Amino acid sequence: MKVSCLSVCLLSATCWLYLTPTTGNKIFQFGPCTISVNVNEIRASFAAIKTTIQARDAIRTTSILSHPNSLHNFNSADRCCIIHHLLRFYVDKVFKHCETPDSHVNRKISSIANSFLSIKKKFRQCHEQNVCKCEEDAIEKYQQILTNYGQLNITSAAMKSLGELDILLDWMEKVH
Fold first, then answer.
1. pLDDT tens for residues 139-167?
2. For the chain, what is the domain count?
3. What gap in Å lies between CA 61 and CA 56, rounded to an integer?
4. In terms of CB atoms within 10 Å, which end of the chain has fewer, N or C?
5. What is the value of pTM for the model shown?
6. Does 151 reside within a domain?
7. 151 is in which domain, residue-wise?
8. Do the domain assignments include residue 44?
9. Are strands 25-30 and 33-38 parallel, antiparallel or unpaired?
10. How far is it, in rounded angstroms, from Cα 164 to Cα 145?
């Protein structure tokens, strides 16, 4: 009886694990901060609107995040600093100015913004305990992103930044 009960329990647990959908959460390490992020959900929402958002970007000669070395060559402590600034940048500047006539696109943008708010909240909790130090190089690179953003009108800059979201997500996954 003990063997069959144990077998049933193990079989049930195995089936439950296989049938339970994965959350898609990945653990990211940004300096002293470890954050769980559902990148798959953000990527799915972005993929659903990427073509529409990028089609609205009439200025192809300027990039917000792709400026040479903007998101490259950070040490661990600088990654903490730059992600702190980029989360604030997207929440405070980008998502506030990304509205389209398409309600489906707006819902996806709202979903992405809510995900970023959640990440920002988790990051703020860690940041309060383990203050990220910003080296000069990280500050300069973030200032370059702000300069790139400031070269365009607010709506164009916000849409371009949203259209480059895959660059940020790729960078986050690469450095974790």
1. 888 999 999 999 999 999 999 999 999 98
2. 1
3. 14
4. N
5. 0.80
6. yes
7. 23-175
8. yes
9. antiparallel
10. 12
